[in-house]
Every structure is written in C-alpha cells, then in structure tokens.
Amino acid sequence: MPTDPYATLGVDRDADADTLKKAYRRLARQYHPDVNSDPGAQEKFKEVSAAYEILSDPEKRRVYDLGGDPFGGQGGFGQGAGFSFTDIMDAFFGGQPQGGRGPRSRQRRGQDALVRLDLELAEAAFGTTRELKVDTAVVCSTCHGSGAAEGSHPVTCETCHGRGEVQHVQRSFLGEIRTLRPCAACRGYGEIIPDPCRDCAGDGRLRSRRAITVKIPAGVDTGTRVQLSGEGEVGPGGGPAGDLYVEVHVAPHRTYTREGLNLHCTVSLPMTAAALGTSIELPLLESDLDTEEIDVERSVTVDVRPGTQSGTDHVLRGRGVPSLRGQSRGDVVVTIEVETPNKLDERQEALLRELAALRHEESPDGRIQPAHKGLFGRMRDAFKQ
Question: Is residue 306 part of a domain?
C-alpha cells in the first residue's frame, strides 16, 4: 500500500471525487507502460493505481483516514486487490469506473422504410393525395410488444441477476484485471423470456400490410422524398417506429418536359402558317386535373407572329410548375418548329416557284450564320421577325 495515497496523487485530503479522477487520469496517462518506456514507469503506475483505488472507494478511504488497512491485510495493488480494468480505460477514454452500463432495453427504435410512388406530371406539379399499401413491422397484437406468451412475463436472468453483464477476471502483470461483458444467457437484457409469444417468436412485432394516406405537396419532382414520421418499421420489443420516406418518380408527359420549374413543349407549324402568322390553342398542364371542382384555366391562346422562324420560343410567364417552397411558378416555354413540305403536286410547286420568283429567290446562295451572335445581332434578328 502506498505510504500516502494523497501525496501519490498530488491532491489535498479534502479532494472530491472529480479532483481525484482528474489527478488519476493525468498520472495514469503519464506512467502507463504502453506510453512510457522508462524502467520505473510500471512501478509508478501501480502505485498511482493503488492510491486511486483507495481514495475512490468511500469505505477504503474512510478506513485509511482512520489509520487502518483499507485492503484488510490482503496487500496492495497487484496483491489480490482486484483493480478494475475500467479504471485504466477511464484514464485514457473518459469511461465510467464506477460500474458498467447495466442491462440494455429490449425496446429499440425501428428502422426507416422507403417506398416508391409513381405520379403523373400534373399530380407532381399541383400536389395530390394518395393511399399507399406498405409492408412494415407493426406491434404484435398478441403480446403487445413484450415478446412473452399470453399469461407469462419475462423473468430476471439467474446468470447476471438482472445486471445484463457479467464480470470476467484475468491475471496479468498489472494484477487482476476485471472486464464487464454482456451476459451471454440473456444477451445483455437482464431478463429472459421463458415462454415466448407464439405469433412473433418473442420479437414483439410482426410484418403486416397496412394502408396509409400520403399528402404530396405541389412542386415535387423525381427524387423528392416525403417524410412521414413514425410510419416506418416498429422497433424490436415494440419500440418506437422509424420514419417512412415516400420517394416520388414522375412519369413522362405526352406534351411537356420539365426543367426545374419550367415546362417545355414543341409546336409544329406548316411553313405557310409560320410565314403568314396564326393562333394556336395550347392545352396547359391544368387540363390533366381530374376534378371539375377546381376552377382553373385549362388552355391558352398562343399568337404566332408572321414570319416566325423555326426554333423561336414563346414564353408564357407563370404558367409552369409551382415552387415547392414558395408562391412562385415557373414558365411555359413553347418552341415553334416550322415544317417544310416534302411532297408537292404540280399546282403547289408552280405556286411556290412563282413566290420564289416574286421574292428573287430562284437561286439563293444561302447565308452563313456566325457561330456566336453578339447582343446587338440577336436584337436585330428579333426585330426582323
């Protein structure tokens, strides 16, 4: 036994438990043989450990302060004192030297679940409500999550006496090293179910198909996940359920393609309509909505100016997809594609040749366009249309 454990740890006689622990950690890190190769470090480490074993135990500290032998004549550290390995681990990792963690709960949080939901473009754009069938673990209705058969209940483990862990002792150059391990008999729960529930085999949960209603907000897109808290898998032992994530996949649309909040479509016009100008009735995405209760504009008139060139875009502001987080909407971009006739009868060919003669375009050389037009060039072309 150290002559004076207070002097060994360098603390006052009225030092509290936190002060003792800090002093022990500092000295143990300094003199532990794994980090200090000095020949006297091992003996110093034993002395520090024995001093802390005395002062960290209220009864041994009281006996020492009264002038008695705190080890009851059994010797100091390494002489049967039974120093706990958790004290050494505490010096390096900040553990809890005053015992183990105790039994672990059978109830644990369940896992999150993921399901896929296929939507039409209008449903994703304007929101919808769907009923889904999901297969998840639910609380067993027979044992209500306890895992025990009806009329029975879990009993205290006789191996660990409800502590959930057992102590293993191993001798080494440091003396007796005690380690705490989960009890193999009860798997660390501290209780054993002698008569498990027949329906869930003691797990406290069963797999079941159930229906849930999912409200999809407006503006979602492929890859968006809607979180439903507490609708996932129920945990073992009837523990709290995880979350359910509904991942949205949007089907291709017959007219529109989506880019962010904007909707794009292409309208083909004959050459004569593009040259003379025309008006087209364009169905909006709202036309796909099933209900008649929503009073919305389902189509819009697009005026095509005379002389419109192929590739010209008409932008309909605020007719696109609503923002998922706000009140704004994207645009509808209508691209005009001018069709050149490839089959002409004699009369049509004669009229086109007459038109070409009137416009002095019988043998045009063609105009090579620059690869990149500047701002003024683009503005000039816009005014020409």
Answer: yes
CA distance 114 to 206: 18
Please give the model's pTM, rounded to 2 decimal places: 0.63
Q: How many beta carbons lie within 10 A of that of residue 148, not counting itself? A: 21
Give the model's pLDDT for residue 382. 55
Q: What is the pLDDT of residue 251?
A: 96
244 in the same domain as 122: yes
143 is annotated as contributing to ligand binding: yes
332 lies in some domain? yes
Number of domains in the chain: 4
Neighbours of 222 (CB within 10 A): 13
Q: Are residues 246 and 126 in the same domain?
A: yes
Whole-number Å distance between alpha carbons of 274 and 87 = 88
**Residue 73 reports pLDDT greater than 70:** no
CATH number at residue 59: 1.10.287.110
Closest listed residue to residue 208, CA positions, set 217, 199, 216: 199
Q: DSSP of 357-376, one letter per residue?
A: HHTT-SS----PPPSS--HH
Task: Give the range of the structural domain holding residue 262, as residue numbers without chain letter.
Answer: 257-384
Is 265 annotated as ligand-binding?
no
Nearest partner of 233 among 139, 146, 145, judged by Cα = 139
Looking up residue 281, the CATH number of its domain turns out to be: 2.60.260.20
Cα–Cα distance measured from residue 132 to residue 119, given in angstroms and rounded to the nearest whole number:
12
Cβ–Cβ < 8 Å for 335, 257? no
